[in-house]
C-alpha cells in the first residue's frame, strides 16, 4: 500500500498563498476557515536573520492521535495512500480529534463535522496531483509515495536536508520541509 | 530570536485552542461527583450500613441519576453534530477513551437504578406499587445486595477514572498528558461527593464518617496536585511551560485561590476542627469543596487547551 507524503522546498516557496486559494476553491472550504495556511518563521538577530516560509496543512501522520481518539471511527486512515480522512456522516462533532492534533490542523466545519486537508484524495484517485501542488507557481511542493524509494518525493527527502514539524510530538508526520 | 507568523485564523483554534467551553468541565465535574457518590453508596451497601433505614444510600441513587443526566445533557450540548449522537453506540473503539466513556455511562445507569430499587423514593413507590415487590425481592437476597454494592463501587471507579483518562491520553496538550490526571479527577470526585453526601446525610454517624473521609480525600488531593505539578516540572520543556501555567502563569491566581485555597486547604482546616469537636459541622466547608472541584475542572480544561508545543516556544 502506498504511503502518500509531501516535500516542500522552503528555498523556493515565496508564501504567495496560491496553495491556500487553490485548496479553498477545490474543496469549497467555508469562509473564515483554512485547510492549509502559510507560516513564516524568522530566526536570528539582524543582520544574521534566516526566514523560512512553510505551507502547512494536516501532516497525515503515521502515528495518528486523531484517529485513535475518535469514538465513532469517523476519523480513519484511508486505504489509498494511508491518507487520514474524516467521514462526515459518522462525525458527531465531539472535537476530541481537534484537541488531540499537535498541529491544530483541524477545525469544525459550519455543518458540524471535523474538517481538514485530505491531500485532495478525490483528485489523487483520478491520477491528478493535490490542488495546492498543482497550482504552485514556484513548483516548491512535491507529492508522492514515501514507501517508493524511486519517487521524486522520496529522493528529495533522501538527498536534501529537511525537517518535519514538531517531531517531538511523536506523531511521525509525513510532510517534510526541505531547507 | 524566533518569530512565527501564520495566515491561519480558524475559529476556536487560533490564536489558541478553545474548542471545549463550559459544557465539558461541567460534564467532567458531574461525572466525577456521581462516580464518587456511587463509590460511597456502594461502600455503605457493602459494609451493611444499608440495614439502617436512614442510610443515605437510599437517597443517593435518585440524585446520582439526576446529576448524571444533567452531565450527559451538558456533553450533548457540546456536540457540533447533535443529531448524530447515536453514532457513539454503533461501534466500540478500544483506543478511544470517549468511546469507553460512552459505554461506561450506559452501564452506570442500570447499576444506579439497581441501587434505587432497593428502596424507591416515596413519589415513585406510591405511583408504582410493583416497586415494593422488587424491593422485597432484593432484600430477601443478601448476596444480590452485596453485588449491587460492588457494582456501584466498580462502575463508580471506572466512571471517575475515565473522566481523567479522557484528557490525559492527549499527547498534544502537555498539561493533560500526565498519568496523574485520572488520580486527581478520581480523588477530586470522591472529595466532592463526600462533601455533598455529608450535607444530605441524616444519620449523625454517617455525617461524622463522611467528614473524616473527606478530610482523607482532601489530604490525598494535595499530594496528587503536588505530584502532578512535580511530574510536569521534571519532564520536557513543553511540560514545564504547561506546569507554569498553573504555578505562575495566566491560570495561577484562580488555581491557587479557588482550587488549592478555597477548594482544599481551608475546608480541610474547617473540617479538621469539626471532626475534633472544636466547632460544629457547617455546610460551609462542603460547599467550598464542591465549588473547588468544579473550578478545578474549568481550569484544567481551559489551561490544557492553551498548553501546546508551539505556545511553549512562542509565548
Secondary-structure topology with pairs:
The complex is a heterodimer of chains A (179) and B (315).
Chain A: E1 4-9, H1 18-27, E2 37-45, E3 48-56, H2 65-69, E4 75-77, E5 84-86, H3 96-100, E6 107-108, E7 114-115, H4 121-124, H5 131-135, E8 141-145, H6 152-159, E9 162-163, E10 175-178
Parallel strand pairs in A: 1-10
Antiparallel strand pairs in A: 1-8, 2-3, 4-5, 6-7, 9-10
Chain B: E1 2-6, H1 23-46, H2 60-78, H3 97-117, H4 122-127, H5 130-139, H6 142-168, H7 181-200, H8 204-233, H9 237-247, H10 252-275, H11 284-306, H12 309-313
Question: Which key terms come to mind for this protein?
Answer:
heterodimer; A: 179 residues; alpha+beta; Alpha-Beta Plaits; four-stranded mixed β-sheet; two-stranded antiparallel sheet; 25% strand; globular; B: 315 residues; mainly alpha; Formate dehydrogenase/DMSO reductase fold
Report on the structure:
The complex is a heterodimer of chains A (179) and B (315). Chain A is α+β, with helices and mostly antiparallel strands and 179 residues long. Chain A starts with a strand and ends with a strand. Chain A is built from six helices and ten strands, in the order E-H-E-E-H-E-E-H-E-E-H-H-E-H-E-E. In chain A, the strands form four sheets. Chain A has a four-stranded mixed beta sheet. Chain A has a two-stranded antiparallel sheet with strand order 2-3. Chain B has 315 residues and is an all-alpha fold. Chain B has a single domain, classed as Formate dehydrogenase/DMSO reductase fold (Up-down Bundle), CATH 1.20.1630.10. Chain B has helices at residues 23-46, 60-78, 97-117, 122-127, 130-139, 142-168, 181-200, 204-233, 237-247, 252-275, 284-306, 309-313, and one strand at 2-6. The longest helix of chain B has 30 residues, at 204-233. The model of chain B has no long low-confidence stretch (mean pLDDT 93). Classes of the chains: A alpha+beta (179), B mainly alpha (315). At the A-B interface, strand 2, helix 2, helix 3 and strand 6 of A face strand 1 and helix 3 of B. Strand 2 (37-45) of chain A pairs antiparallel with strand 1 (2-6) of chain B, so a sheet runs across the interface.
Amino acid at each position: 500500500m502506498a504511503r502518500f507524503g509531501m516535500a516542500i522546498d522552503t528555498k523556493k516557496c515565496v508564501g504567495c498563498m496560491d496553495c491556500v486559494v487553490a485548496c479553498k476553491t477545490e474543496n469549497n472550504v467555508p469562509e473564515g476557515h483554512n485547510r492549509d495556511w502559510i507560516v513564516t518563521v524568522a530566526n536570528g538577530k539582524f543582520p544574521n536573520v534566516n526566514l523560512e516560509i512553510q505551507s502547512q496543512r494536516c501532516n497525515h501522520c503515521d502515528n495518528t492521535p486523531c484517529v485513535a481518539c475518535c469514538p465513532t471511527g469517523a476519523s480513519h486512515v484511508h486505504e489509498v495512500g494511508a491518507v487520514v480522512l474524516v467521514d462526515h456522516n459518522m462525525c458527531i462533532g465531539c472535537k476530541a480529534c481537534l484537541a488531540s492534533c499537535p498541529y491544530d490542523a483541524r477545525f469544525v466545519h459550519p455543518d458540524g463535522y471535523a474538517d481538514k486537508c485530505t491531500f485532495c484524495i478525490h483528485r489523487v484517485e483520478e491520477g491528478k496531483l493535490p490542488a495546492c501542488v498543482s497550482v504552485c507557481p514556484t513548483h516548491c511542493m512535491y507529492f508522492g509515495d514515501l514507501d517508493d524509494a524511486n519517487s521524486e518525493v522520496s529522493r528529495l527527502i533522501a538527498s536534501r536536508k529537511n525537517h518535519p514539524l514538531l517531531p517531538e510530538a511523536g506523531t511521525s508526520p509525513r510532510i517534510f520541509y526541505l531547507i | 530570536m524566533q518569530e512565527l507568523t501564520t495566515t491561519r485564523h480558524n475559529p476556536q483554534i487560533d490564536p489558541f485552542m478553545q474548542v471545549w467551553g463550559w459544557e465539558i468541565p461541567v460534564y467532567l465535574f458531574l461525572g466525577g461527583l456521581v462516580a464518587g457518590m456511587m463509590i460511597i453508596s456502594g461502600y455503605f451497601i457493602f459494609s451493611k450500613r444499608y440495614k439502617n433505614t436512614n442510610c443515605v444510600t437510599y437517597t443517593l441513587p435518585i440524585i446520582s441519576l439526576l446529576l448524571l443526566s444533567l452531565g450527559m445533557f451538558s456533553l450533548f450540548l457540546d456536540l457540533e453534530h447533535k443529531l448524530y449522537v447515536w453514532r457513539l453506540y454503533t461501534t466500540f473503539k478500544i483506543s478511544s477513551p470517549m468511546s469507553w466513556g460512552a459505554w461506561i455511562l450506559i452501564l452506570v445507569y442500570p447499576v444506579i437504578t439497581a441501587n434505587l430499587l432497593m428502596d424507591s423514593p416515596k413519589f415513585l413507590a406510591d405511583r408504582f406499587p410493583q416497586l415494593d415487590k422488587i424491593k422485597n425481592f432484593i432484600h430477601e437476597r443478601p448476596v444480590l445486595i452485596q453485588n449491587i454494592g460492588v457494582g456501584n463501587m466498580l462502575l463508580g471507579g471506572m466512571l471517575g477514572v475515565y473522566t481523567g483518562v479522557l484528557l490525559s491520553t492527549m499527547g498534544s496538550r502537555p498539561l493533560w498528558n500526565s498519568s496523574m490526571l485520572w488520580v486527581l479527577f478520581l480523588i477530586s470526585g470522591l472529595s466532592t461527593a463526600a462533601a455533598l453526601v455529608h450535607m444530605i446525610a441524616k444519620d449523625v454517624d454517617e455525617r461524622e464518617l463522611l467528614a473524616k473521609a473527606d478530610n482523607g480525600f482532601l489530604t490525598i488531593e494535595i499530594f496528587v496536585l503536588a505530584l502532578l505539578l512535580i511530574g510536569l516540572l521534571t519532564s520536557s520543556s513543553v511540560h514545564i511551560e504547561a506546569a507554569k501555567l498553573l504555578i505562575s502563569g495566566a491560570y495561577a491566581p484562580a488555581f491557587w485561590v479557588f482550587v488549592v485555597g478555597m477548594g482544599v486547604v481551608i475546608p480541610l482546616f474547617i473540617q479538621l476542627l469539626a471532626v475534633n469537636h472544636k466547632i460544629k459541622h457547617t455546610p460551609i466547608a462542603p460547599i467550598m469543596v464542591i465549588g473547588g472541584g468544579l473550578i478545578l475542572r474549568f481550569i484544567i480544561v481551559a489551561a490544557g487547551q492553551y498548553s501546546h508545543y508551539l505556545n511553549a516556544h512562542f509565548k
